[in-house]
């Protein structure tokens, strides 16, 4: 199967000379369409940086991230932003919802930014799948952690992106809620035919993945 | 205490932008307060000084006292600083009216008599006078030490004595001396002793000041002086009260004082709102930090002290700087526009300014201080900055960048509205003041003096000069200075396009028999009448009606009641037609707000019914093209040269003076407004900065979700635009309404140059452009500042 996402000699260094920190060091990954990959590693191993680079949130020191046959860093800022809202869905550890708008508006945010009209039927379906139907008019701060993370997942799915990048999506949740959220995430990804890359600390979560990448000192070790 | 200071400093450093903003707000407040305090007190002092120079510092004088009365006065408990002026004799000259006087040291001091050069006379043969005095006596280039022969008569009677004097000093002279053809010369005590050894014979004037002046106003002081005179057995006519000086020195310039206090209150209220806003936001943003402090054992008192300390540190730094700059600004301003060297040593002003500024800061931080102290450590840890009270939002099914922007303003409704209101308020002031200032019409003001054409030639006569009756208007009119020959000459001047004349009659007021008073009646035709009643204040008047009733218009509306009249009253006069007296009475049909140089106006038709034989033409207006002005003026001046009691005014000169006056008022008002505007802008800057810093992470998330930089800029600019639009809306609606009301009030009060209302378009345009410009710059700077951090950094940003 064709790779949907590839990194080529991807490097991200901070600092200079002796103080240099190689957060991502010459990493080559290939992700196939529909795959669920778990990225594991110790704190500070560079997993988040790798994820940010793959999502075009940060610029690499060298190397390429190729999505759909194109190096995303060759895009202009404007196009990269458009690329993010169309092709990538992010789920962060801290739920990162926009506090001034309600749940529904948070979910359709990336579509709105793209200047498109949300496919309401599709969004309703996501909302239903994630069990948020009677919360759509709520403000984010009135929701529990699990609910907020479900909204974040719904937002990531709403624009029908090819790839979902999740950075410890259950890191702030208790174990029972974590399980629920994880199942929903996995189900949704499957349902909508998306590719999922997820950072996790949790061995159990990692085991749910098709493939596990272990990162150590900025390098993929297996 | 040390820990508190250290923590306060650290907090201020961490939020440097906000610290600077607050600092600037306090600095500007202090600057304004200082400038207004010093300017106001300086103006009061200046008025007092000017009036003292002009009228002398004595509160009054007693004339023609007997030796006994004098002795009694000298030991009177309430009188002090007693000086004496003795009129010794008159100098013989056909044309000039000159006298020799002796001033003792106290009198010199009280009357601010200062010589241009040389000294006051000490020896019998010494004399000091304006240079003009010696010129009259034949010395065209007098120098100190020159000998001069002065013919004089003691007490203006007896035989002429001629004495040789040595010039010992020159007194200041002014145009009035030459115009009124009168001079004073100062001689020594010895001279007086020589010619008037008998004190009883001396025509002495006693100048004095009165104790306990502070608790009396002008009217009370007059009364008090009269009661002292009564004590001394003096008659009313022997008492002369120095009204002009009393007016300025005893009345603390209530109007200036009240305006200054009002302006100061506005500034203080305004800055309290701004400083409060900045501190309030600062505290809510640091709730977590305060909670942590509390968790590790900081007491409520310590937290309060911490916030208060920030205010104190800021004040200690910015207030002195504000005072310094205030001094510089106000000094330059007065120097530039009024050429006044403003004294800056008014300690009272400094103390008051420091107190008020400091108090303003302390009041501003009261509420934030309590918020900080009340924080529960448990709640604080969970506190999300920007606590939202609303649980639900109807929201939109489809989201756009605009909806997103509006949602943020809506959720922080209180802050949005406060900011718009404070910004709006400062602009309301701007609009109100420009409504008045922009409507100051120097041309129309000049037209009050010169109603037609470019020059006004007029008879410059007195009404009731008994000493020099030849200066009285009716006497001058007998000579018919503006006869047809003169008018013909004027018309024939090259460049003159039109002339108009006006009749003015001197009249004796016989409405009430108790006091004898004189006034002037102007005669106008229909054109002039219609022009005059444009500014009608009271009564229903038109020309036909006035003719039918043979009524009159009262010209000084402001004084109508003061003079004891009302509309419908009948006034009675004796018109002074040369040596004849023509009785005349008329009903007051209305009143006008300005004077055409007469107290009463009647119509041409009514005048024609009167039995007036003389030529009453007293004013000639001359019109010409502007380019011929200089040449026409020369010709007119040549024509009237040698004619007594005729004066000329030029429209251009008056206009120039008016423009200068308006320029000063305008500059002062706008300078004040700009500073106030800057304080208001600080508030907007603070709101925008805070709203952006607190949302850094949110912006990161939104951008990660796919918002481009362009959309981000658009969002910030839109946010700013909404602030601007709200501000402008408040400013223009409230401002113009209040402005119009203020205009009407000021016009009614007879403020300078206010006639016709017009919306201040230019100022409004400047305001709109200025606000939008500042806001665009601010939004641009902020969005640049945010974008400096990468999206990843922003997402990881901690609250």
Please tell me about this protein's structure:
The complex is a heterodimer of chains A (222) and B (799). Chain A has helices at 47-54, 77-87, 103-113, 120-129, 145-158, 175-191, 203-207; strands spanning 3-14, 21-32, 36-41, 62-67, 70-71, 88-91, 163-167, 195-199, 211-216, 219-220. By secondary structure, chain A is of the alpha/beta class. Chain A has a domain at 34-47 and 80-220: Rossmann fold (3-Layer(aba) Sandwich), CATH 3.40.50.300. In chain A, strands 6-7-8-3-9-10 form a 6-stranded mixed β-sheet, sandwiched between helices. In chain A, α4 (120-129) packs antiparallel against α5 (145-158). Chain A is globular and about 55 Å long. A 6-stranded mixed barrel of chain B has the order 2-3-8-5-7-6. A 6-stranded mixed β-barrel of chain B has the order 12-13-18-15-17-16. In chain B, α2 (16-55) crosses α12, α2 (16-55) packs antiparallel against α13 and α10 runs parallel beside α13. Chain B folds into 4 domains: 1-55 and 250-387, no CATH class; 60-241, no CATH class; 403-449 and 652-799, no CATH class; 461-644, no CATH class. In chain B, 55% of the residues lie in helices and 18% in strands. Chain B has 799 residues and is α+β, with helices and mostly antiparallel strands. Chain B is globular, with a radius of gyration of 36 Å. The A-B interface holds A 49, 52, 55, 57-59, 77-78, 81-86, 88, 90, 92, 96-102, 104-105, 108-115, 117-118, 120, 137-139, 141-142, 155, 159 and B 384, 386, 388, 390-401, 403-404, 407-408, 410-412, 697-698, 700-711, 790-792, 795.
